[in-house]
What does this fold into?
Amino acid sequence: MKFFVDTANLDQIREAEGLGVLDGVTTNPSLMAKEGIEGENAILQHYKDICSIVSGDVSAEVLSTTYQEMIQEGTMLSALHPQIVVKVPCTKDGIRAIKYFTEQGIRTNCTLVFSIGQALLAAKAGATYVSPFVGRLDDISSDGVELVASIVEMYRYYGYETQVLAASIRSVQHIVECMKVGADVVTSPLSSILGLLKHPLTDSGLAQFEQAAKKMMK
Ligand code: G3P
It folds into this structure.
């Protein structure tokens, strides 16, 4: 399973990369705005900065909503750096744009996916990744992990190569559950990735070993 960090914060991306287990980065307009990035030049430079920190895929989302504009914007984004994956919303224009990008050899991440039908269209259009939003489904009393599981099963049944990228991850438990149902990628905040390390028995075991080590070195 691949780990992506879901942030546009350069310090957090550096910290995640420093762990040595990071496979990529996902961003979205909300995450970019949170970093105070404004204007086209600043946005493009920020994507280049992220690509210079990590060696894996970096999802850069189009801000446009119409087919022609998505094509123009996505083509420009993909030309920025070979690691860029163009993130496109799962709308009628978005699916058409993904199909176009697929034909041009441009990799895509179909985002804002909340149903298996949307995931089917994304795969048929040739998306590299599909992003079901786990946390936002849970927010409306639906089951986000169940959707991830259904998409994984459907893609395996039909042999689609689109990778299932579980997004809108809010907790360590989300990561573990998505892993159990076979997600290809989980993108999460750095705090949830670091949360995987936490176990009270690791802490108490380490304290015991440290005490024993002190005795031995007396
Ligand atoms: O990867 C999508 C993610 O950034 C959305 O997360 O917590 O806003 O639903 P959230």
In short: Residues 200-217 form the longest helix (18 residues).
